[in-house]
Design goal:
There is one protein chain. This protein is of the alpha+beta class. Helices cover 26% and strands 21% of the residues. It has 7 helices and 13 strands. The strands form 3 sheets. It has a 7-stranded antiparallel β-sheet. The protein has a 4-stranded antiparallel β-sheet with strand order 6-11-8-9, with no helix packed on it. Helix 2 packs across helix 5. The radius of gyration is 19 Å and the shape is globular. Bound molecules: fe (ii) ion. Fe (ii) ion binds next to loops.
Length: 286
């Protein structure tokens, strides 16, 4: 990052002595874990997750905080690696022995950019929020997990997904149990987060419904109302989901915070090559 840009970033970051200052603690008292407000918040999160596999916390990062984080992300977005991948909704290799009409053989195109963790200076607001233990402990409680660990991947632990004009994240199932996102900046149009809650389960793949949605059916499709600063917990292993095409000159910027229930999770070099255009992490910021 050029020195001038780094100085701007340092100045913005220094406005916040502690990552807690980015969060609307009056509404989401995550630093006061013995309070009734905290217990109520955890109950609310778990109910939402149980009902539809998603939990939205509007204004989790307050307006001023998210405005600063969006400015920062817009600068970092210049470093994003853009990639286009064609594949199925299952993120698996296509099996040519399946009938051509099988949901697993249907493909579509995903195109978006990603800023990797190692491209974010240690002082960046997003990185400071992600590395804050109170947030991780709150997310563990909200998800009903004993504890969480930040991903150990120097590139994949924290990302900014950058979706410019025409970018699209195709319908798919996740290969992880949950994802945590914070919307920093919406695009001018499009970029809606759509999903079909629990369209499949471990023993019921429900290929016909999946195929119908891939063919344009709206049966069971829900659109999540997410505004800047909104934190979303999403269980995407069994809920088909996508981000509709973004339109217009302003990029949609969303932070993806990587956690797992076990330590040491890293991505493969193959995945890194696709996502970030390089297999090896940068040495600075390590
Ligand atoms: Fe996903």
């Amino acid at each position: 990052m050029p020195t001038e840009a780094a100085t701007v970033l340092e100045t913005r970051s220094s406005k916040y002595l502690n990552p807690s200052e980015l969060v609307d603690l009056a509404r989401y008292p995550i630093t006061d874990r013995s309070s009734k407000g905290y217990a109520d918040l955890i109950t609310f999160c778990r109910e939402q997750l149980l009902n539809c596999g998603a939990c939205v916390l509007p204004g989790f990062v307050h307006q001023k905080g998210v405005a600063d984080m969006a400015d920062e992300a817009a600068e970092l977005a210049l470093l994003a690696h853009h990639n286009t991948v064609v594949g199925n909704a299952y993120l698996t290799e296509i099996d040519p022995t399946l009938p051509e009409t099988d949901a697993r053989r249907m493909t579509d195109t995903t195109s978006l950019g990603a800023v990797a963790y190692d491209q974010m200076p240690a002082s960046s607001l997003l990185r400071r929020l992600y590395e804050w233990d109170f947030l991780m402990e709150f997310l563990a409680d909200a998800l009903g997990k004993e504890r969480l660990f930040r991903y150990a991947d120097p590139m994949g632990a924290l990302n900014i997904a950058v979706m410019g004009d025409g970018d699209y994240l195709r319908w798919h199932f996740d290969q992880t149990d949950f994802v945590t996102t914070i919307l920093l900046q919406p695009g001018l149009a499009g970029g809606e987060y759509e999903f079909v809650p629990m369209i499949r389960s471990g023993d019921k793949p429900n290929y016909e419904h999946v195929k119908a949605v891939l063919n344009g059916s709206r049966e069971g499709v829900i659109t999540l109302d997410i505004q800047p600063g909104g934190l979303v917990l999403f269980e995407g292993r069994n809920s088909l989901h996508r981000v509709t095409e973004v339109q217009g000159a302003k990029a949609r910027l969303i932070a993806l915070l990587g956690y797992d229930t076990k330590p040491g999770t890293t991505g493969s070099e193959y995945l890194r090559q696709i996502r970030y255009g390089r297999a090896k992490p940068l040495t600075e910021n390590q």
